[in-house]
Description:
By secondary structure, the protein is an alpha+beta fold. It has helices at residues 2-19, 75-84, 97-105, 143-156, 177-201; strands at 28-32, 37-41, 55-59, 90-94, 110-114, 131-137, 162-165, 169-174. One of its GO terms (biological process) is pentose catabolic process.
Amino acid sequence: MWQERLAQLVTTCHWIGAKGWAPATGGNMSIRQDAGWCWLSESGRDKGSLTSEDFLQVDIATNQAPSGRKPSAETGLHTLVYRLFPEANVVLHVHTVNATVLSRIEKGPALNISGYEMQKTLTGQQSHLNTVPIAIFDNDQDIDALAKRIEQHAEQTPLKYGFLLRGHGLTCWGKDVAEARRQLEGLEFLFECEMQRRLYERD
Length: 203
Ligand SMILES: CSCCC(=O)C(=O)COP(=O)(O)O
Ligand SMILES: [Zn+2]
């Protein structure tokens, strides 16, 4: 089961690379194996040309990789998602221009998306009239501290779909590769719309 999921993830990484959403080794991707383990992209790789050999098994509770190779520098954010959301089986982190810039333009704690038909690409959303908040966290080179901050925030305000790291990128997830990929593409489309709207409306 997880082997098939990993093969699908590799295909999705190539798609992400072709989109230009993981430039210059940016981004990282993972799948859940089971309740205790996940498979994460190796740190420093070009994420657009990964093979299944470039994924390392990681303990979700401890962030340790038995192989001794170095999983993503942002492993702690992937394992946090797997701990917070038992239904999440795939995590995608990308460095798109829209996520990077919009998360800086928006100074508040969330990007509120409303008024777009494409919101319905996000699981459970049925109307453009709803507001979908995507939380934004200030970036931090200390991933343990960042993960703790996100975890504390999530205790008060549940996260949905993903979160933005200010000036850094988007992390999103899904129950399977298809859902994570659809939501990534949907969010990126919505971010592009919001960038353009703010440019033209000077919001
Ligand atoms: C190369 S961009 C800086 C690190 C980063 O934000 C990222 O997403 C890639 O880090 P990794 O260790 O997963 O290669
Ligand atoms: Zn990153």
